[in-house]
Amino acid sequence: MTKTKGRNEFYFLMLIIIGTLIISAAFNLFFIPHKILSSGLSGIAILLGLITPFETGLINFVLNLPLLIVGVFKLGKRFIIYTIISVVVLSIGLYIIPVTEVSSEPILSSIFGGVIAGLGGGLIFRASGSSGGFDIIAVLLTKKRDFPLGSILSALNAVVVIFSGFIFGWDAALHTLVGIYASGKMVDMIHTKHIKLTLMIVTKKGDEIKDKMLANFYRGITVWDGEGAYTGEKKKILMTVITRYQLTDVKLLINEIDPQSFVNITQTQEVMGAFDRS
Fold first, then answer.
1. What is the CATH number of domain 196-268?
2. 8-state DSSP, 217
3. N or C terminus: fewer CB in 10 A for the chain?
């Protein structure tokens, strides 16, 4: 089981690194040469890199650092570790990949840059990580208030577009908007983020799974007693609702404690009441 977990962790780590390097290439080959900003805090980093003498990669790391420190205490350990790795790799990638104009057409650069950046972002999300920045802010805000995550991210990205318009002109702002849209569509094709899932777990090790999940995830769990119809064996049934971000972590946790457990995973249309704890 340890070997399987190790292989999974290595696979997810490779997804994080490859996805982040793809994003770095999209920025330096398509966005930055045409003063097109990306979504998120990295867009602010690109903007500051263009108008100051500092490297974009260094600015990206400095901007993300306080959020990463807060995230260590507020978000899941694995999520924030992968996010830290992504932020570091992105900062290094932006430094080592030369800024080169692949296309002389800004609109083509915004579309292809957005698609390529979305590909990288989708790979990162598939590994239950993020590239930092606004994702961390949005997740932290939704823990405090029942705000829709997508609306928060859209509002934060609107700030990037407005900054782009005032500093580089509104043509650049529209190109930025096209790039953000293309990137978002590509991410959705690879990994649908921010959706909620209901898990029904039937296991002989209910207390162990419950304690581990409560210790590692900011989600409530309902537990009741069950019995196998064929064997008559006593079991525990755990029901919880999680985000898509947490699915990979939860599956690894359950498989580590009780690989013989039965887990039914369904997409949840809507959640009312106490989503965080119950």
1. 3.30.70.120
2. -
3. N
